[in-house]
Amino acid sequence: MLSKTVIDHLRRKIGTGNVYQEREDLLVLGYDATPEIEGLPEVAVFPENREGLEAALEVSRQEGMAITPRGAATGLSGGSTPAAGGMILGLTRMNRILEIDEENLTATAETGVITSNLFNAVAARGLFYPPDPGSQNVSTLGGNVAENAGGLRGLKYGVTRNYVMALSGLLYDGTEFVAGNKCVKDVAGYSLRDLLVGSEGTLGIITEITVRLVNPPQDKRTLLAYFRDIRTAGEAVSRIIAARIIPATLEIMDKTTINCVEDYAGIGLPRDMAALLLIEVDGHPAVVAEEVEGVRKVLNDVKADVIRQAANAEEAAQLAAARRTALSAVARVSPTTILEDATVPRSRLAETFAEIERLKEKYGIRVATYGHAGDGNLHPTAVTDERNREEIEKVHAFFSDLYEKVLSMGGTVSGEHGIGIAKKGYLLRQFGKGGMDVMRRIKKGFDPDGRLNPGKIFLDEGVSTGVKIPGGANV
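Now predict its structure.
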Protein backbone atom coordinates (compact mmCIF):
# COMPACT_ATOMS: atom_id res chain seq x y z
CA MET A 1 0.00 0.00 0.00
CA LEU A 2 1.32 3.43 -0.93
CA SER A 3 2.26 5.75 1.90
CA LYS A 4 0.51 9.03 2.55
CA THR A 5 3.73 10.79 1.56
CA VAL A 6 3.65 9.21 -1.91
CA ILE A 7 -0.06 9.95 -2.39
CA ASP A 8 0.45 13.57 -1.33
CA HIS A 9 3.34 13.85 -3.79
CA LEU A 10 1.13 12.53 -6.63
CA ARG A 11 -1.63 14.97 -5.73
CA ARG A 12 0.78 17.90 -5.77
CA LYS A 13 2.19 16.90 -9.15
CA ILE A 14 -1.00 15.73 -10.88
CA GLY A 15 -3.80 17.50 -9.00
CA THR A 16 -5.87 16.35 -6.04
CA GLY A 17 -8.90 15.56 -8.19
CA ASN A 18 -6.80 13.41 -10.51
CA VAL A 19 -5.56 10.87 -7.94
CA TYR A 20 -7.75 8.12 -6.49
CA GLN A 21 -6.87 5.75 -3.67
CA GLU A 22 -10.14 4.94 -1.89
CA ARG A 23 -11.34 1.38 -2.44
CA GLU A 24 -14.78 2.41 -3.72
CA ASP A 25 -13.13 4.55 -6.39
CA LEU A 26 -10.67 1.84 -7.37
CA LEU A 27 -13.30 -0.89 -7.68
CA VAL A 28 -14.90 0.75 -10.72
CA LEU A 29 -11.48 0.95 -12.39
CA GLY A 30 -10.77 -2.74 -11.95
CA TYR A 31 -12.54 -4.02 -15.05
CA ASP A 32 -13.32 -3.16 -18.65
CA ALA A 33 -16.09 -4.48 -20.94
CA THR A 34 -14.80 -8.07 -20.67
CA PRO A 35 -16.80 -10.43 -18.45
CA GLU A 36 -15.14 -12.61 -15.80
CA ILE A 37 -11.99 -10.48 -15.63
CA GLU A 38 -11.25 -7.94 -12.91
CA GLY A 39 -8.47 -6.65 -10.70
CA LEU A 40 -7.83 -4.01 -8.07
CA PRO A 41 -5.16 -1.31 -8.42
CA GLU A 42 -3.42 0.35 -5.49
CA VAL A 43 -3.89 3.80 -6.95
CA ALA A 44 -5.31 5.45 -10.07
CA VAL A 45 -4.00 8.66 -11.58
CA PHE A 46 -5.41 10.72 -14.43
CA PRO A 47 -2.79 13.22 -15.59
CA GLU A 48 -3.96 16.16 -17.68
CA ASN A 49 -0.62 16.84 -19.36
CA ARG A 50 2.80 15.43 -20.15
CA GLU A 51 4.30 16.71 -16.87
CA GLY A 52 1.69 14.87 -14.84
CA LEU A 53 2.31 11.71 -16.82
CA GLU A 54 6.05 11.92 -16.21
CA ALA A 55 5.43 12.41 -12.48
CA ALA A 56 3.20 9.32 -12.36
CA LEU A 57 5.82 7.21 -14.13
CA GLU A 58 8.55 8.47 -11.80
CA VAL A 59 6.54 7.42 -8.74
CA SER A 60 5.77 4.02 -10.24
CA ARG A 61 9.48 3.43 -10.85
CA GLN A 62 10.45 4.52 -7.35
CA GLU A 63 7.81 2.23 -5.82
CA GLY A 64 8.42 -0.67 -8.23
CA MET A 65 4.80 -0.58 -9.35
CA ALA A 66 3.18 -2.03 -12.43
CA ILE A 67 1.44 0.42 -14.75
CA THR A 68 -1.85 -0.34 -16.51
CA PRO A 69 -2.63 2.28 -19.18
CA ARG A 70 -6.37 2.90 -19.45
CA GLY A 71 -8.56 4.82 -21.86
CA ALA A 72 -12.34 4.53 -21.83
CA ALA A 73 -12.13 0.80 -20.91
CA THR A 74 -14.43 -0.33 -23.71
CA GLY A 75 -12.01 -3.17 -24.52
CA LEU A 76 -13.26 -6.73 -24.88
CA SER A 77 -10.21 -8.77 -23.92
CA GLY A 78 -9.30 -7.46 -20.48
CA GLY A 79 -6.45 -5.32 -21.76
CA SER A 80 -7.05 -2.36 -19.45
CA THR A 81 -7.67 -4.35 -16.26
CA PRO A 82 -4.94 -4.16 -13.57
CA ALA A 83 -3.82 -7.80 -13.57
CA ALA A 84 -0.92 -7.06 -11.22
CA GLY A 85 -2.44 -4.33 -9.05
CA GLY A 86 -0.15 -1.33 -9.13
CA MET A 87 -1.13 1.93 -10.79
CA ILE A 88 -3.94 2.62 -13.21
CA LEU A 89 -2.70 5.32 -15.59
CA GLY A 90 -5.87 6.92 -16.91
CA LEU A 91 -5.29 8.87 -20.13
CA THR A 92 -8.78 10.23 -20.80
CA ARG A 93 -8.00 13.71 -19.48
CA MET A 94 -5.23 14.25 -22.01
CA ASN A 95 -7.88 14.98 -24.61
CA ARG A 96 -6.98 17.91 -26.84
CA ILE A 97 -7.07 17.95 -30.62
CA LEU A 98 -3.76 19.70 -31.25
CA GLU A 99 -3.84 20.30 -35.00
CA ILE A 100 -5.82 19.66 -38.17
CA ASP A 101 -3.33 20.14 -40.99
CA GLU A 102 -5.32 20.62 -44.20
CA GLU A 103 -2.18 21.03 -46.31
CA ASN A 104 -0.77 17.62 -45.33
CA LEU A 105 -4.15 15.96 -44.70
CA THR A 106 -3.30 14.97 -41.12
CA ALA A 107 -4.65 15.52 -37.63
CA THR A 108 -2.68 15.37 -34.39
CA ALA A 109 -4.39 14.70 -31.08
CA GLU A 110 -3.67 13.64 -27.54
CA THR A 111 -4.30 10.05 -26.63
CA GLY A 112 -7.53 10.67 -24.69
CA VAL A 113 -9.50 12.28 -27.56
CA ILE A 114 -12.76 10.42 -28.19
CA THR A 115 -12.83 8.86 -31.64
CA SER A 116 -16.08 10.43 -32.81
CA ASN A 117 -14.92 13.86 -31.61
CA LEU A 118 -11.96 13.66 -33.99
CA PHE A 119 -14.23 12.39 -36.77
CA ASN A 120 -16.60 15.34 -36.30
CA ALA A 121 -13.81 17.90 -36.02
CA VAL A 122 -12.19 16.89 -39.30
CA ALA A 123 -15.58 16.48 -40.99
CA ALA A 124 -16.25 20.15 -40.22
CA ARG A 125 -13.21 20.89 -42.41
CA GLY A 126 -14.49 18.69 -45.24
CA LEU A 127 -12.18 15.79 -44.38
CA PHE A 128 -12.73 12.18 -43.38
CA TYR A 129 -11.21 9.95 -40.68
CA PRO A 130 -12.49 6.47 -41.62
CA PRO A 131 -11.82 4.18 -38.59
CA ASP A 132 -15.14 3.67 -36.79
CA PRO A 133 -15.08 1.13 -33.95
CA GLY A 134 -18.52 0.30 -32.56
CA SER A 135 -17.55 2.19 -29.40
CA GLN A 136 -16.53 5.32 -31.32
CA ASN A 137 -18.72 7.63 -29.22
CA VAL A 138 -16.87 6.54 -26.07
CA SER A 139 -13.52 4.99 -26.99
CA THR A 140 -10.33 7.03 -27.18
CA LEU A 141 -7.77 7.31 -29.95
CA GLY A 142 -5.12 5.89 -27.64
CA GLY A 143 -7.24 2.84 -26.96
CA ASN A 144 -7.93 2.46 -30.69
CA VAL A 145 -4.19 2.53 -31.38
CA ALA A 146 -3.37 0.14 -28.53
CA GLU A 147 -5.84 -2.45 -29.85
CA ASN A 148 -5.54 -1.57 -33.56
CA ALA A 149 -9.31 -1.09 -33.56
CA GLY A 150 -11.42 -1.91 -36.60
CA GLY A 151 -15.03 -1.03 -37.29
CA LEU A 152 -17.85 -1.18 -39.79
CA ARG A 153 -15.89 0.64 -42.51
CA GLY A 154 -12.83 -1.59 -42.14
CA LEU A 155 -13.58 -3.64 -45.27
CA LYS A 156 -12.93 -0.77 -47.69
CA TYR A 157 -11.00 1.71 -45.59
CA GLY A 158 -8.91 -0.47 -43.31
CA VAL A 159 -8.29 -0.34 -39.57
CA THR A 160 -6.60 2.10 -37.22
CA ARG A 161 -3.08 1.02 -38.25
CA ASN A 162 -3.75 2.16 -41.82
CA TYR A 163 -4.19 5.76 -40.64
CA VAL A 164 -1.54 6.20 -37.96
CA MET A 165 1.35 8.26 -39.28
CA ALA A 166 3.18 9.13 -36.07
CA LEU A 167 3.15 8.33 -32.37
CA SER A 168 4.98 9.93 -29.49
CA GLY A 169 5.19 9.02 -25.84
CA LEU A 170 7.26 7.53 -23.06
CA LEU A 171 8.71 4.17 -22.14
CA TYR A 172 8.41 2.96 -18.56
CA ASP A 173 11.94 4.16 -17.76
CA GLY A 174 11.08 7.68 -18.91
CA THR A 175 12.71 7.46 -22.36
CA GLU A 176 10.88 9.66 -24.85
CA PHE A 177 10.09 8.30 -28.30
CA VAL A 178 8.76 9.68 -31.57
CA ALA A 179 7.83 7.08 -34.16
CA GLY A 180 6.85 8.31 -37.60
CA ASN A 181 6.03 11.75 -39.03
CA LYS A 182 3.76 13.45 -41.58
CA CYS A 183 5.68 12.14 -44.57
CA VAL A 184 3.66 9.84 -46.81
CA LYS A 185 6.87 7.90 -47.55
CA ASP A 186 9.31 7.00 -44.81
CA VAL A 187 11.39 3.81 -44.68
CA ALA A 188 14.06 5.03 -42.27
CA GLY A 189 14.94 2.39 -39.69
CA TYR A 190 12.62 -0.09 -38.04
CA SER A 191 8.94 0.86 -38.14
CA LEU A 192 8.49 1.44 -34.42
CA ARG A 193 5.15 3.07 -35.17
CA ASP A 194 3.75 -0.15 -36.57
CA LEU A 195 5.16 -2.13 -33.66
CA LEU A 196 3.43 0.14 -31.14
CA VAL A 197 0.07 -0.01 -32.90
CA GLY A 198 -1.72 -3.03 -31.45
CA SER A 199 0.81 -3.50 -28.63
CA GLU A 200 -1.95 -3.16 -25.99
CA GLY A 201 0.01 -0.83 -23.72
CA THR A 202 2.75 -3.41 -23.11
CA LEU A 203 5.59 -1.51 -24.81
CA GLY A 204 5.11 2.20 -24.20
CA ILE A 205 2.74 4.97 -23.10
CA ILE A 206 1.40 6.84 -26.13
CA THR A 207 0.71 10.52 -25.54
CA GLU A 208 0.16 12.00 -29.03
CA ILE A 209 -1.09 10.51 -32.28
CA THR A 210 -0.91 11.86 -35.83
CA VAL A 211 -3.37 10.30 -38.25
CA ARG A 212 -3.90 10.43 -41.99
CA LEU A 213 -7.09 12.01 -43.34
CA VAL A 214 -8.81 11.43 -46.69
CA ASN A 215 -11.53 13.07 -48.74
CA PRO A 216 -15.06 11.97 -47.81
CA PRO A 217 -17.00 9.87 -50.34
CA GLN A 218 -19.25 11.86 -52.67
CA ASP A 219 -22.12 9.38 -52.61
CA LYS A 220 -23.34 6.44 -50.55
CA ARG A 221 -26.14 3.92 -50.94
CA THR A 222 -27.32 1.31 -48.48
CA LEU A 223 -28.80 -2.10 -49.29
CA LEU A 224 -30.40 -4.59 -46.95
CA ALA A 225 -30.76 -8.27 -47.87
CA TYR A 226 -32.54 -10.99 -45.91
CA PHE A 227 -31.90 -14.74 -46.01
CA ARG A 228 -33.66 -17.84 -44.70
CA ASP A 229 -30.30 -19.66 -44.44
CA ILE A 230 -27.30 -17.98 -42.83
CA ARG A 231 -24.90 -20.04 -44.95
CA THR A 232 -26.40 -18.46 -48.06
CA ALA A 233 -25.66 -15.06 -46.55
CA GLY A 234 -22.04 -16.15 -46.08
CA GLU A 235 -21.91 -17.30 -49.69
CA ALA A 236 -23.26 -13.92 -50.81
CA VAL A 237 -20.45 -12.15 -48.99
CA SER A 238 -17.81 -14.34 -50.65
CA ARG A 239 -19.34 -13.78 -54.10
CA ILE A 240 -19.54 -10.00 -53.68
CA ILE A 241 -15.82 -9.88 -52.89
CA ALA A 242 -15.03 -12.35 -55.70
CA ALA A 243 -16.87 -9.98 -58.07
CA ARG A 244 -14.22 -7.35 -57.18
CA ILE A 245 -16.76 -5.19 -55.38
CA ILE A 246 -15.49 -3.77 -52.09
CA PRO A 247 -18.33 -2.09 -50.20
CA ALA A 248 -17.55 0.38 -47.45
CA THR A 249 -19.60 -1.80 -45.10
CA LEU A 250 -20.70 -5.41 -45.39
CA GLU A 251 -22.23 -6.46 -42.08
CA ILE A 252 -24.15 -9.54 -41.01
CA MET A 253 -26.64 -10.30 -38.23
CA ASP A 254 -28.10 -13.74 -37.52
CA LYS A 255 -31.66 -14.45 -36.39
CA THR A 256 -30.89 -14.17 -32.69
CA THR A 257 -29.24 -10.79 -33.21
CA ILE A 258 -32.06 -9.56 -35.47
CA ASN A 259 -34.61 -10.31 -32.79
CA CYS A 260 -32.53 -8.72 -30.04
CA VAL A 261 -32.04 -5.56 -32.12
CA GLU A 262 -35.73 -5.44 -33.00
CA ASP A 263 -36.67 -5.79 -29.32
CA TYR A 264 -34.26 -2.96 -28.54
CA ALA A 265 -34.69 -0.55 -31.46
CA GLY A 266 -38.05 -1.50 -33.01
CA ILE A 267 -37.22 -0.51 -36.60
CA GLY A 268 -39.19 -3.24 -38.36
CA LEU A 269 -36.63 -5.97 -38.98
CA PRO A 270 -38.30 -9.28 -39.97
CA ARG A 271 -38.04 -11.70 -37.07
CA ASP A 272 -38.42 -14.86 -39.15
CA MET A 273 -35.28 -14.42 -41.25
CA ALA A 274 -32.12 -16.42 -40.49
CA ALA A 275 -29.77 -13.56 -41.40
CA LEU A 276 -29.47 -10.11 -42.90
CA LEU A 277 -26.69 -8.32 -44.71
CA LEU A 278 -26.24 -4.57 -44.37
CA ILE A 279 -24.28 -3.31 -47.37
CA GLU A 280 -23.05 0.26 -47.85
CA VAL A 281 -21.40 1.25 -51.11
CA ASP A 282 -19.71 4.65 -51.33
CA GLY A 283 -17.48 6.69 -53.62
CA HIS A 284 -17.96 8.54 -56.90
CA PRO A 285 -21.67 8.53 -57.88
CA ALA A 286 -21.07 6.67 -61.15
CA VAL A 287 -19.01 3.99 -59.45
CA VAL A 288 -21.56 3.68 -56.64
CA ALA A 289 -24.38 3.13 -59.14
CA GLU A 290 -22.38 0.45 -60.94
CA GLU A 291 -21.39 -1.35 -57.75
CA VAL A 292 -24.94 -1.31 -56.35
CA GLU A 293 -26.11 -3.10 -59.49
CA GLY A 294 -23.25 -5.57 -59.12
CA VAL A 295 -24.24 -6.29 -55.52
CA ARG A 296 -27.88 -6.72 -56.55
CA LYS A 297 -26.88 -9.24 -59.19
CA VAL A 298 -24.96 -11.33 -56.65
CA LEU A 299 -27.84 -11.20 -54.18
CA ASN A 300 -30.27 -12.31 -56.87
CA ASP A 301 -27.92 -15.08 -58.02
CA VAL A 302 -27.72 -16.60 -54.52
CA LYS A 303 -31.48 -16.11 -54.15
CA ALA A 304 -31.65 -13.70 -51.24
CA ASP A 305 -35.23 -13.68 -50.00
CA VAL A 306 -35.66 -9.90 -49.83
CA ILE A 307 -33.49 -7.10 -51.23
CA ARG A 308 -34.26 -3.47 -50.50
CA GLN A 309 -32.48 -0.15 -50.70
CA ALA A 310 -32.65 2.62 -48.13
CA ALA A 311 -34.91 5.33 -49.46
CA ASN A 312 -32.81 8.21 -48.14
CA ALA A 313 -29.86 9.14 -45.96
CA GLU A 314 -31.98 9.13 -42.80
CA GLU A 315 -33.12 5.55 -43.34
CA ALA A 316 -29.57 4.48 -44.19
CA ALA A 317 -28.29 6.06 -40.97
CA GLN A 318 -31.03 4.30 -39.01
CA LEU A 319 -30.04 0.92 -40.42
CA ALA A 320 -26.36 1.48 -39.69
CA ALA A 321 -27.24 2.62 -36.16
CA ALA A 322 -29.26 -0.58 -35.66
CA ARG A 323 -26.17 -2.64 -36.50
CA ARG A 324 -24.10 -0.58 -34.07
CA THR A 325 -26.56 -1.37 -31.29
CA ALA A 326 -26.14 -5.14 -31.76
CA LEU A 327 -23.95 -5.67 -28.70
CA SER A 328 -26.12 -3.47 -26.49
CA ALA A 329 -29.24 -5.22 -27.74
CA VAL A 330 -27.83 -8.70 -27.17
CA ALA A 331 -26.44 -7.73 -23.74
CA ARG A 332 -29.96 -6.97 -22.47
CA VAL A 333 -31.00 -10.62 -22.82
CA SER A 334 -28.90 -12.16 -20.04
CA PRO A 335 -26.56 -11.00 -17.26
CA THR A 336 -23.38 -11.99 -19.14
CA THR A 337 -22.37 -11.65 -22.78
CA ILE A 338 -19.09 -13.16 -23.91
CA LEU A 339 -18.18 -11.55 -27.22
CA GLU A 340 -15.42 -12.91 -29.45
CA ASP A 341 -14.03 -11.87 -32.82
CA ALA A 342 -13.09 -14.97 -34.75
CA THR A 343 -11.77 -13.98 -38.17
CA VAL A 344 -11.41 -16.23 -41.23
CA PRO A 345 -10.56 -15.83 -44.90
CA ARG A 346 -13.72 -14.54 -46.57
CA SER A 347 -14.03 -17.62 -48.74
CA ARG A 348 -14.55 -19.68 -45.56
CA LEU A 349 -17.44 -17.66 -44.12
CA ALA A 350 -20.23 -20.08 -45.02
CA GLU A 351 -18.20 -22.92 -43.49
CA THR A 352 -17.66 -20.87 -40.33
CA PHE A 353 -21.38 -20.15 -39.95
CA ALA A 354 -22.08 -23.85 -40.30
CA GLU A 355 -19.52 -24.61 -37.59
CA ILE A 356 -21.05 -22.04 -35.24
CA GLU A 357 -24.48 -23.62 -35.72
CA ARG A 358 -23.05 -27.10 -35.13
CA LEU A 359 -21.26 -26.08 -31.94
CA LYS A 360 -24.30 -24.23 -30.60
CA GLU A 361 -26.27 -27.44 -30.90
CA LYS A 362 -23.43 -29.52 -29.46
CA TYR A 363 -23.14 -27.44 -26.29
CA GLY A 364 -26.76 -26.34 -25.98
CA ILE A 365 -25.96 -22.66 -25.50
CA ARG A 366 -27.42 -19.48 -26.95
CA VAL A 367 -25.13 -17.57 -29.30
CA ALA A 368 -25.88 -14.45 -31.36
CA THR A 369 -23.61 -13.97 -34.36
CA TYR A 370 -23.01 -10.66 -36.09
CA GLY A 371 -20.01 -8.77 -37.37
CA HIS A 372 -17.97 -7.45 -40.24
CA ALA A 373 -18.64 -10.26 -42.68
CA GLY A 374 -16.97 -8.46 -45.57
CA ASP A 375 -13.55 -8.83 -43.96
CA GLY A 376 -14.26 -12.21 -42.41
CA ASN A 377 -14.47 -10.77 -38.89
CA LEU A 378 -17.35 -12.37 -36.98
CA HIS A 379 -18.59 -11.69 -33.46
CA PRO A 380 -20.20 -14.84 -32.06
CA THR A 381 -21.60 -13.67 -28.73
CA ALA A 382 -22.63 -16.14 -26.03
CA VAL A 383 -25.64 -15.01 -24.01
CA THR A 384 -25.14 -16.55 -20.58
CA ASP A 385 -24.75 -15.95 -16.84
CA GLU A 386 -21.28 -16.15 -15.31
CA ARG A 387 -22.83 -17.27 -12.00
CA ASN A 388 -23.85 -20.50 -13.72
CA ARG A 389 -20.43 -22.15 -13.80
CA GLU A 390 -21.65 -25.26 -15.61
CA GLU A 391 -22.98 -23.16 -18.48
CA ILE A 392 -19.89 -20.94 -18.51
CA GLU A 393 -17.74 -24.04 -18.93
CA LYS A 394 -19.83 -24.98 -21.96
CA VAL A 395 -19.41 -21.48 -23.38
CA HIS A 396 -15.62 -21.65 -23.05
CA ALA A 397 -15.61 -25.12 -24.61
CA PHE A 398 -17.69 -23.74 -27.49
CA PHE A 399 -15.18 -20.97 -28.17
CA SER A 400 -12.22 -23.30 -27.74
CA ASP A 401 -13.62 -25.63 -30.40
CA LEU A 402 -14.55 -22.72 -32.65
CA TYR A 403 -11.06 -21.20 -32.52
CA GLU A 404 -9.54 -24.59 -33.26
CA LYS A 405 -11.62 -24.64 -36.45
CA VAL A 406 -10.84 -21.00 -37.23
CA LEU A 407 -7.10 -21.62 -36.97
CA SER A 408 -7.36 -24.73 -39.12
CA MET A 409 -8.89 -22.54 -41.86
CA GLY A 410 -6.02 -20.06 -41.77
CA GLY A 411 -7.92 -17.62 -39.56
CA THR A 412 -6.89 -15.60 -36.52
CA VAL A 413 -8.05 -15.48 -32.91
CA SER A 414 -8.54 -11.71 -33.04
CA GLY A 415 -9.51 -9.42 -35.88
CA GLU A 416 -9.85 -6.27 -33.79
CA HIS A 417 -10.38 -6.88 -30.06
CA GLY A 418 -6.80 -7.72 -29.11
CA ILE A 419 -5.48 -10.44 -26.80
CA GLY A 420 -5.29 -8.93 -23.31
CA ILE A 421 -6.00 -11.57 -20.68
CA ALA A 422 -8.93 -13.34 -22.28
CA LYS A 423 -7.16 -14.71 -25.36
CA LYS A 424 -3.67 -15.55 -24.12
CA GLY A 425 -4.24 -19.27 -24.50
CA TYR A 426 -5.64 -18.87 -27.99
CA LEU A 427 -2.71 -16.69 -29.07
CA LEU A 428 -0.27 -19.40 -28.03
CA ARG A 429 -2.19 -21.85 -30.23
CA GLN A 430 -1.92 -19.47 -33.18
CA PHE A 431 1.76 -18.50 -32.92
CA GLY A 432 3.29 -21.43 -31.10
CA LYS A 433 6.17 -21.23 -28.65
CA GLY A 434 8.62 -19.88 -31.23
CA GLY A 435 6.40 -17.00 -32.25
CA MET A 436 5.61 -16.11 -28.65
CA ASP A 437 9.31 -16.16 -27.75
CA VAL A 438 10.00 -13.58 -30.47
CA MET A 439 7.25 -11.34 -29.08
CA ARG A 440 8.62 -11.77 -25.58
CA ARG A 441 12.07 -10.60 -26.74
CA ILE A 442 10.49 -7.47 -28.21
CA LYS A 443 8.63 -6.83 -24.97
CA LYS A 444 11.85 -7.19 -22.98
CA GLY A 445 13.63 -4.71 -25.24
CA PHE A 446 11.06 -2.02 -24.56
CA ASP A 447 10.20 -2.93 -20.97
CA PRO A 448 12.99 -5.05 -19.45
CA ASP A 449 11.45 -5.13 -15.97
CA GLY A 450 8.01 -6.11 -17.23
CA ARG A 451 6.21 -3.21 -15.54
CA LEU A 452 4.03 -2.05 -18.45
CA ASN A 453 0.62 -3.74 -18.49
CA PRO A 454 1.89 -7.05 -17.11
CA GLY A 455 -0.26 -10.17 -17.34
CA LYS A 456 -1.38 -9.43 -20.88
CA ILE A 457 -0.69 -11.30 -24.14
CA PHE A 458 1.78 -13.85 -22.72
CA LEU A 459 0.22 -16.92 -21.13
CA ASP A 460 3.22 -17.80 -18.97
CA GLU A 461 4.24 -14.33 -17.90
CA GLY A 462 3.85 -15.30 -14.27
CA VAL A 463 1.45 -12.59 -13.11
CA SER A 464 -1.18 -14.04 -10.79
CA THR A 465 -4.61 -12.84 -11.89
CA GLY A 466 -6.78 -15.66 -10.55
CA VAL A 467 -8.60 -15.59 -13.87
CA LYS A 468 -9.38 -18.67 -15.95
CA ILE A 469 -7.89 -18.18 -19.38
CA PRO A 470 -10.07 -19.66 -22.15
CA GLY A 471 -8.12 -22.11 -24.26
CA GLY A 472 -5.23 -21.96 -21.84
CA ALA A 473 -4.91 -22.36 -18.08
CA ASN A 474 -5.45 -20.58 -14.79
CA VAL A 475 -2.89 -17.84 -14.20
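Residues 464-468, 471-475 have pLDDT under 50 and may be disordered.
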